[in-house]
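DUF1311 domain-containing protein, pasting as requested.
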Amino acid sequence: MSMFEISIAGTAVSTNDRPIRRPAGHQSMRNVLPILPLIACLAHPALAANAKPRSDVQDLKACMIKAKADPRGCIESIVNPCVKALSNDSEDGVNGCYDREAAAWDDILNTTYKSELADAESFDKDAKANGGEPGAAISLKQAQRAWIAFRDAECSRLYARNMDGTIRFTVAAACQNRLTAERAIELSQSDAP
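Structure tokens follow.
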């Protein structure tokens, strides 16, 4: 009878029902299984590129403060060093770098939008109390919805224009990053003259 190892309720036994003796210090596969997804994420370049989103937000905010007059220069300030740090310029890795920066810009955009909306609602409340017509908050909501529709349509258009190659994924990721960054910057300066 051949000896095959099977596991029953976490105990290794052979097919002839004898316990399997393992060398001291041996770890079974079940001790490794819980960390396999983490290992897979870190090994995949696109997922590894997503390693520092919180510090990316801080880095972009610091760049915007430093840039003052031209914060658009901060666009791709996370992407470029991320791509340079890749062991190879795989498309998945590059796309992961774009996704990483886009996530940071999206965080900045959402925070800025909430602040601007609260300001618009306060403005509307004051306008109404003083006999004026409120409309700042509803206009901001309409503008944001229209911008989201534009961003999605524009990036879909660029994706479709590059349908014949795998570059379409990078083009779409770069589009999402650029337009999200531009909107975050624009909205943060919306009250500027």
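Note for the archive: The CA atoms of residues 22 and 28 lie 9 Å apart.
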